[in-house]
Amino acid sequence: MAEQGNGExxxxxxxxxxxxxxxxxxxxxxxxxxxKGEFLTMLGPSGSGKTTCLMMxxxxxxxxxxxxxxxxxxxxxxxxxKRGIGMVFQNYALFPHMTVAENLAFPLEVRKxxxxxxxxxxxxxxxxxxxxxxxxRRPAQLSGGQQQRIALxxxxxxxxxxxxxxxxxxxxxKQLREHMQFEITNLAHDLxxxxxxxxxxxxxxxxxSDRVAVFNDGRxxxxxxxxxxxxxxxxxxxxxFIGENNTLEGTIQDIADGRCTVRLDGGELIDANPINxxxxxxxxxxxxxxxxxxxxxxxxxxxxxxxxxxxxxxxYMGDIFRTRLRVAGKDDFVIKTRNAxxxxxxxxxxxxxxxxxxxxxxxxxxx
Length: 367
Ligand SMILES: Nc1ncnc2c1ncn2[C@@H]1O[C@H](COP(=O)(O)OP(=O)(O)O)[C@@H](O)[C@H]1O
Ligand SMILES: [Mg+2]
Fold this sequence. Notes:
CATH 2.40.50.140, 19 strands, 34% strand, alpha+beta, Rossmann fold, elongated, disordered N terminus
């Protein structure tokens, strides 16, 4: 999704490319612009170029081509410590021989801030992450979660306008991770700082961010708000990468007025919403979310095409039922239904019919 930087952007990547070896591009053509105060997440599989982008923004790597702008000014020639950017990494990177308070004072000393002012800021930053009592401890005397809080406080202590975080919660257990996700987003919004956050965890990206840039193979595949990304993926990669998703392969038969019919490879005909397909005969992968599949025919529009399905497995999950079906020759078609008082509990071996509203079934590229 090409998006040009403009005068109002706080952070902008313009046609940025990066090669480490002078041959292969690991960042291919990055265009991205962020307003001040935004929480933007770069989400993508390992090796897709996320860390490289963050390192270029921080100034630890240089772009092979293109421009990176901060507040409208190209920062290509400004060294890292002059960019006024706070950073948090996965492995805390606290100085082990210093106390917590000394760790926090360090970025202030580098910036030549006087002792009294330093102590005030350190106290404030520690209070912000609820670690006010821990100033005299050394990192080894803290739990992983506490160390990560200190790393966060250290990134915020000099009041940067921009903070970069690279998988900062990756080393924490699930419960602590969810708690910290909440703390980080609250803190960022309260302080009004702009955040570029990197993760390969889609739930983290969806729950924390104003917008998410989905990376694959050195390119942004889609840049959108979480609900838009989940409900309106623009290509097969994004549909597969974000959330659980059923896919069926086939060929476009008819296409008109924002609707298409697809002849599945097994012979069945279905209704779909043409997203990046344009003409009959074209190969497509249709994508439908498990919670958008209807098993009650009365709830489908008139003339809707339905598919025969066989129930293979029923899993009771408390709040929802997760049922696996055989559909169009595939054994991995999943539907999710809410555990409402009148909800049917399907049984393995049962034959049913399924369908959907055509707008919920997206005909995407066949790649
Ligand atoms: N310092 C480096 N030297 C050479 N190649 C690198 C270096 N850092 C990353 N790469 C390569 O660049 C690609 C993108 O890596 P990276 O930006 O770390 O991806 P991500 O953070 O999405 O996992 C990978 O193929 C990786 O091997
Ligand atoms: Mg990385």
